[in-house]
Amino acid sequence: xxxxxxxxxxxxxxxxxxxxxxxxxxxxxxxxxxxxxxxxxxxxxxxxxxxxxxxxxxxxxxxxxxxxxxxxxxxxxxxxxxxxxxxxxxxxxxxxxxxxxxxxxxxxxxxxxxxxxxxxxxxxxxxxxxxxxxxxxxxxxxxxxxxxxxxxxxxxxxxxxxxxxxxxxxxxxxxxxxxxxxxxxxxxxxxxxxxxxxxxxxxxxxxxxxxxxxx
Length: 215
Hints:
By secondary structure, the protein is α/β, with parallel strands linked by helices. Helices cover 55% and strands 12% of the residues. The protein has helices at residues 7-12, 25-32, 51-57, 86-96, 110-119, 121-138, 143-164, 168-174, 181-189, 195-214; strands at 15-18, 41-44, 63-68, 77-83, 100-104.
């Protein structure tokens, strides 16, 4: 059986975070639903499980679905939120607003696209950094130097994007001198079938798989 809080604690809970794998969410719900107060709100991280299904199993209680990134662990996460009721939306914001940026979605179906753009996106960045480190080593840098340069550069560029208020395209133009080294690199990255096309296909693949998991 799942380990759950004492019944009296559940009875006092106003917000219940359903943070389980989608394969066992019904088991988790069955163990706690009967102990909850009628006005308790369910905030679910269970990927692909529809809010209507969750609400039904929890006796019609209000539900918010959320998709946080792992950077919530350091207070810099991004959380996509869908909730049909203002109260459920407010509870989700109360949980995830303090640990990063919370973005409200107008339609539950948009969570599939948000999976591709946000939920899965940290892995894209990590893969990019891996590839950049390997490219640096292939160009002759010692592996340790390639790693430090790649990671620090990506971190600094992300911070500048966050704090400058400039559009990404403008920041890109600022570091791309005509006929220079950056332009030479971007001509490879941005060519047909290059980075923009690959990223669009990757986001579409993640969204498509999200829909498949949701049934």
